[in-house]
């Protein structure tokens, strides 16, 4: 069987959804780290698990799968606690 040549994608999973996938995400996230996504209205996430897959036939394709927990405006939202005015919509 031939080895997979790439590209190796990073797929982000949150609450049963697949918010996005990227071929170019180079920052090696670790479990427990926080993640700010400016492209989704500044939602904040916590990395809860990371899996690597070499399976081409299932729901989890080739690559790294980062499982996130949405912590936006929860007790675990440290960025909001530090700078709430930054994340509060201006009226």
Secondary-structure map:
Blueprint (H helix, E strand, L loop, with lengths): L8 E6 L2 E6 L11 E4 L5 E11 L9 E8 L7 H5 L1 H4 L4
Distance between the termini: 59 Å
Order of helices and strands: EEEEEHH
Biggest sheet, open or closed, and with what strands and sense?
5 strands, mixed
Strands in their spatial order, largest beta sheet: 2-1-5-4-3
| Backbone structural class | mainly beta
Average pLDDT, rounded to a whole number, is 80
Spans where pLDDT lies below 50 across 5 or more residues: none
The general outline is elongated
Total of DSSP H or I helical runs spanning 4+ residues: 2
Query: Could you give the count of β-strands?
Result: 5
Strand content: 35-45%
Give the helix proportion (percent range).
under 10%
Radius of gyration (Å):
15 Å
Give a nutshell description of this structure.
The chain has 91 residues and is mainly beta. It contains 2 helices and 5 strands, in the order E-E-E-E-E-H-H. A hairpin with a 2-residue loop joins strand 1 and strand 2 (17-22).
